[in-house]
Amino acid sequence: MFPSRRSPRTRLMAAAAVCAALAATATLAEAQAAARQVVVGEGQRVSATLSPGIRLGNMLFASGQLGTSPNDTTIAGQTTRALENTEKVFKAAGTTLANAVKCTVFLTDVKDFRGMNEAYTKFFPSNPPARSTVVVAALVVPNAKVEIECQGVIP
User: Fold this and answer.
1) Could you tell me how far CA 23 lies from the centroid of its own chain?
2) CA 93 to chain centre
3) What is the rounded distance in angstroms from the CA atom of residue 114 to the CA atom of residue 154?
4) pLDDT tens string 57-116
5) What is the pLDDT of residue 35?
6) CB neighbours of residue 154 within 10 Å
7) Which helix (H) or strand (E) holds 103?
8) Which of 30, 41, 46, 124 could make an SS bond with 89 (beta carbons 3.0 to 4.6 A apart)?
9) Distance, CA of 122 to CA of 93 (rounded, Å)
10) What is the dihedral of CA 139, 128, 85, 34, to 10 degrees?
């Protein structure tokens, strides 16, 4: 590990420095893990594969929310429901959609853009977050037309 030409005292000091560096790394990893909190909105649950949201410091990362409903299969209805689900995550973290800074919208049909946008703007009437809209071949639920994920700050 250490060259044998060095004195035992030098080798001991080097070993102590390595141990101190390892301890500092472990302490940093523990602090980061402690700062990471799972956020669960009302009526939502954590599964084996995802959390509805993660809070890290004053940042919130909301997982993609679907808007499927047997009662309303329109793009406007699904967009509204997806954003209501996102709003629940933000509320559970102690913030609102007014503090969203970036959203990504996944659509299964580009023709739904206008209807999604009309419903979306009701949740962000002024100062909307940055947004990307991506058209995908399909979402994980067969009848889902839209999925929305957002990141935000917690004041």
Assistant:
1) 30
2) 12
3) 30
4) 999 999 999 999 888 899 999 999 999 999 999 999 999 999 999 999 999 999 999 999
5) 83
6) 16
7) strand 100-107
8) 41
9) 22
10) 100
